[in-house]
Amino acid sequence: MAKYRTEQIRNVALLGHGGSGKTTLTEALLHKTGVIGRMGRVEDGSTVSDWDAEEHRRGISINLSVIPIEFENMKLNLIDAPGYQDFVGEVISALFAAEAGLLVVDAVSGCQVGTELAYDRLRDLNKPRIAFVNRMDRENANFTGAVESLRTTLGDEKIVAFQIPIGEADAFKGVISLIEMKAYLGPEGKEVPIPDDLLAQAEEARVALVEAAAEADDELIMKYLEGEELTTDEVRHGLHIGVRNCAITPVYCGTATGGIGLERLMQALRRYVPAPNERTVAGTQNGNALNLESDPAGPIAGTVFKTIIDRYVGRMNYIRVFSGTIKKDASLANTRVGRSSRMANLFHIRGKELQATDELVAGDIGVVTKVEELVTGDTLTAADRPVAADAPFYPRPLYSVAVTPATQADSAKMGPGLSALVEEDPTLRVQNISATKQTVLQGMGETHVDVAVHHLANKFGVNVETAIPKVPYQESITRIASAQYRHKKQTGGAGQFAEVHLRVEPREPGAGFEFTSEVFGGSVSSVYFPSIEKGIRSVMDSGVIAGYPVVDVKAIVFDGKEHPVDSKDIAFQTAGREAFKLAVKGANPVLLEPIYIVEVTVPDEFMGDIMSDFNTRRGRVLGMEQKNNRTVVRATVPLAEILRYSTDLRSMTQGRGIYTIEFDHYEAVPSNVAQEIVAQHKEEGNDE
Ligand SMILES: Nc1nc2c(ncn2[C@@H]2O[C@H](COP(=O)(O)OP(=O)(O)OP(=O)(O)O)[C@@H](O)[C@H]2O)c(=O)[nH]1
Ligand SMILES: [Mg+2]
Q1: To test ligand 1's pocket by mutation, which of 14, 15, 23 has the most ligand atoms within 8 angstroms of CB?
Q2: 20 to 30 A from 640, CA-CA: which of 102, 312, 421, 664?
Q3: Which of 14, 24, 51 is the pocket-test mutation for ligand 1 (most atoms within 8 Å of CB)?
Q4: CB of 18 sitting under 6 A from ligand 1
Q5: Please, what is the average pLDDT of the chain?
Q6: Which ligand sits closest to the CA of 43?
Q7: Which ligand approaches the C-alpha of residue 133 most closely?
Q8: CA–CA separation, 214 and 236 (whole Å)
Q9: Cβ–Cβ under 8 Å, residues 67 and 355
Q10: Is the CB of 463 under 6 A from ligand 1?
Q11: How far apart are the first and last CA of the chain?
Q12: What is the dihedral of CA 559, 560, 565, 568, to 10 degrees?
């Protein structure tokens, strides 16, 4: 690979619905630019981009993959991102490292969910986008239909065809550029005059293109409105501005497997994707916000956007350099941990292939290996002149499974294996839930978590069993109650005697546990108060009515009896514990359940379904708002009702809905539901 300056680099993320052909397109462009002699196939697991065993097994991309190609004195860093929704973390990372997005669209299905979600992200980030209608060779391919579906679904009139196809399906032979009004035939893109039967269609389509170009520039619109013809260069100029300002989304077409339209596509990427030094990114320096310029001589800021813990290479961190130049063997500080490391191993990467390099200039993407503690979101910078790019925001996990080691041997390795998984993927989380005594692995969806479990086994050698996690209920009381318990064991051996009179009172939510004494006249010596409290605390963890932690209770020992010989710590622990259980049972105990705020974003037509569905989940709708051509519904819903919401929402909205969840508060479980939970607890024989 030649050396490229910042202004010769273009970073573009390939986004779109699963199966639209993103990985195949990278393979075709590698083939077109002579990097590979023969194209691999996703089905055979032989592409450069899909190198992970799980990708081969499932036939989909799971990881983002960096595929640099060289084209006309430029380096195009293609970042192939997965289309499957669960791998949204990879899409966020890919977009973080890129200046623009290439939306790959299937010519038969047109705008699909993945296209819509990717477009929304690009719009929210205000990053330029180009659409490529791929698979034009397929039966029922329909370019006009695809463009129309993009416009209507995305609600964006400025989605403009920059080309039209010559033929469709098996008659697809080439493309017509509406800018130059020339036709390009076959994989080699041989330039020919526009076929007569397509001239009228091309001219008609060109009207919309010229109009869009004119509207992008004040001078051009004046000329256009005065009825003057715009020159090709003026049209190109207007389009350039329009695309860069995210006002226009150009649409190209072709076929990755057929190799048609690729040359023109690379031209478009070269022309419309901004160079890194044409955009700034938000960052900080000494706590002050600043806009980082991609200046190779500027302060060093290289941010990690992907981490892989590889069995052979060890830790690999993908770096996007936002400012300055990272040189081999330089000592750079990791701003998050405040420690410096030597950049001993610096590489460019293509798929899984590492190519050693002695520097990474501003705007470029590379990999450093074996830098301990470095994870996604960290920035490498000069210790004496620290700057950092603002790390991307990754959504909270939506789907959880409880994991248990499959064998004794696995239990020792499970902890480190799970932390390695989490270090690799910022959308994976591991929590040890004390309320349910479970280790829970959390991710963005069923497939995401399943892939993680497979990686745990195949990459880190840890086998686990998974189950639907228990809901971390809590127990509490709603009124004051008292009880007393006498513990007496005076048969054979050392006797035990203790009697505790205890009152329990409810406390404010979140106030926690309080123990105090109101014993007068020394009926119980104060030396036994800690024993009573210890006994009570043992119940606090294991629960009274359903085996869940007891919270927000004040326990007051106000009387009791002791025996000069047989009273001792263990006796008062027992009496305290049992008196507490009795008192709690008399204080109208309730189960509390975690309530989450769920925010669902769906196309308007699904709003009604979402609302009524929330009613079936004991949910309360808080409100709705419009966001572009979608509705955002906010509701509070018990966690117990949304454990598998990702799967349900997908089927309710044909995959077009997305949602976020956030813990909000605990609330009493309705008695009919609580009875079931208590009954199940009894059934499991946990109740004494
Ligand atoms: N007929 C035809 N098939 C294509 C074309 N491009 C890709 N395919 C096929 O489409 C299927 C999906 O291709 P991929 O490249 O895996 O799609 P993707 O967008 O990377 O999918 P995800 O990684 O799941 O997001 C494969 O079977 C490809 O062979 C094309 O131009 N024409
Ligand atoms: Mg793919």
Answers
A1: 23
A2: 421
A3: 24
A4: yes
A5: 95
A6: 1
A7: 1
A8: 10
A9: no
A10: no
A11: 71
A12: -80
State if residue 532 touches ligand 1 by the CB under 6 angstroms criterion.
Answer: no
H-only helix segments in 543-623 = 569-586, 607-616
Cβ-proximal residues to 594 (8 Å cutoff; 6+ apart), any chain: 471, 472, 473, 638, 639, 663, 665, 666
pLDDT tens track for 548-572: 999 999 999 999 999 888 899 999 9
Q: Looking at ligand 1, which residue's alpha carbon is closest to its atom 7?
A: 21
Residue 86 near residue 397 (C-beta atoms within 8 A): no
Domains of the chain: 8-193+248-278 (3.40.50.300), 292-389 (2.40.30.10), 399-469 (3.30.70.870), 475-588 (3.30.230.10), 592-673 (3.30.70.240)
Burial of 522 (0-12, 13-18, 19+ CB in 10 A): exposed
Residue 255 beta carbon below 6 angstroms from any ligand 1 atom: yes
d(CA 48, CA 46) in angstroms, rounded, equals 7
Query: Regarding beta strands 346-350 and 314-323, do their DSSP bridges make them parallel or antiparallel, or are they unpaired?
Result: unpaired
Of the listed ranges 451-455, 506-510, 684-688, the one predicted with least confidence: 684-688
**Model pLDDT for residues 279-299, shown as the tens digit of each residue:** 999 999 888 999 999 999 999
Hunting for tokens 């600043």 — which residue is that?
290
* Residues 566, 493 contacting (CB under 8 angstroms): no
Residue 377 DSSP symbol: T
Q: How far is residue 301's CA from residue 305's CA, in Å, rounded to a whole number?
A: 13
Q: Using the Cα atoms of residue 233, residue 189, residue 163 and residue 251 in order, give the sign of their dihedral.
A: negative
Cβ atoms < 10 Å from Cβ of 383: 14
Q: Which residue's CA is minimally distant from atom 13 of ligand 1? A: 21
CA of 16 to the centre of ligand 2 (A): 9
Q: Among the bound ligands, name the one nearest to the CA of residue 21.
A: 1
Whether the CB-CB separation of 402 and 470 falls below 8 Å is answered with yes
> Which ranges of 191-337 would DSSP assign to H, the alpha helix?
196-215, 218-225, 232-244, 262-272
In the reported structure, the alpha carbon of residue 104 is separated from the centroid of ligand 1 by a whole-number distance in angstroms of 10
Per-residue pLDDT tens digits for 322-350: 999 999 999 999 988 989 999 999 999 99
> From the CA of 44, how far away is ligand 1's center (Å)?
12
Ligand 1 near 64 CB (within 6 A): no
The structure tokens listed for 242 are: 């329009």
Return d(Cα 675, Cα 688) in angstroms, integer. 17
CB-ligand 1 contact for 68 (6 Å cutoff) = no
540: left (phi over 0), alpha (psi -120 to 50) or beta: alpha
21 pocket-lining for ligand 1 (C-beta < 6 Å): yes
11 Cβ below 6 A of ligand 1 = no
Q: Which atom of ligand 1 is nearest to the CA of 258?
A: 31
Residue 379: closest CA among 418, 322, 325: 322
